[in-house]
């Protein structure tokens, strides 16, 4: 079947309607509406002034059906194009052959020489100062083997504890001073009250 715009143009010509005016408007209207029923109602409202009532319903229904069919065909063609594009891309990728990296004879010899060199390392060459290591071990000097991460964590915790202890001591001293001040103030109030009472008794 011909594409919908071409079919619609021919149908409008047959009805004696201006394809340039009605064609684009009808296509836009069909795209905007969400269901076939809404499209049918909108189309009838547009063409009611141009067509006889008995012809109007048939033409509108035919236009909507053709539109729906064209959308299915378009969607199918788009899907086929998409599948074709994916297949083409996969085919191109399959053609790309990754060549393995060629290792030159010189590189092979250099690697072999290095392996042989490391394989022949003796214990003495690996640890050139065994006597010094033993002396350190006897003295208990294990600084070479310390785990600095663990040491850092422990130091941080120690520092935190010291700071907390300092804060606690300061707070304790402040509370102690405040209690002493409160005690003195209370004592002073008692003394004043006592003196006032004694003065009152003398006046009598």
Automatic annotation (TrEMBL):
Where's the CCDC43 PWI-like domain?
Answer: 4-71
Highest taxon above the source species? Eukaryota
Per UniProt, the ranges with Basic and acidic residues bias are 170-191
Q: Which UniProt keywords apply?
A: Coiled coil
Residue ranges annotated as compositionally biased, kind Basic residues, are 192-204
Keyword Coiled coil included in the entry's annotation: yes
Q: Where is this region: Disordered?
A: 170-204
User: Which InterPro entries does the UniProt record give?
Assistant: CCDC43 (IPR037666), PWI_CCDC43 (IPR058771)
State the family it belongs to.
Belongs to the CCDC43 family.
Name of the molecule in the record: Coiled-coil domain-containing protein 43
């Amino acid at each position: 079947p011909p594409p919908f715009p071409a079919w619609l143009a021919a149908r409008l010509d047959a009805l004696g309607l201006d394809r340039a005016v009605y064609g684009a408007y009808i296509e836009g209207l069909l795209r905007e509406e969400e269901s076939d029923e809404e499209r049918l109602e909108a189309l009838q409202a547009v063409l009611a002034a141009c067509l006889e009532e008995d012809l109007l319903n048939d033409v509108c229904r035919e236009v909507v059906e053709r539109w729906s069919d064209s959308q299915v065909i378009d969607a199918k063609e788009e899907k086929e194009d998409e599948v074709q594009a994916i297949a083409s891309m996969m085919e191109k990728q399959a053609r790309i052959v990754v060549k393995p990296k060629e290792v030159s004879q010189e590189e092979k010899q250099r690697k072999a020489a290095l392996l042989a060199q490391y394989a022949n390392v003796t214990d003495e060459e690996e640890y050139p100062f065994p006597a010094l290591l033993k002396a350190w071990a006897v003295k208990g000097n294990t600084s070479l083997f310390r785990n600095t991460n663990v040491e850092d964590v422990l130091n941080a915790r120690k520092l935190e504890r010291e700071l907390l202890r300092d804060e606690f001591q300061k707070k304790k001293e402040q509370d102690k001073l405040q209690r002493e001040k409160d005690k003195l103030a209370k004592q002073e109030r008692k003394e004043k009250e006592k003196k006032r009472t004694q003065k009152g008794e003398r006046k009598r």
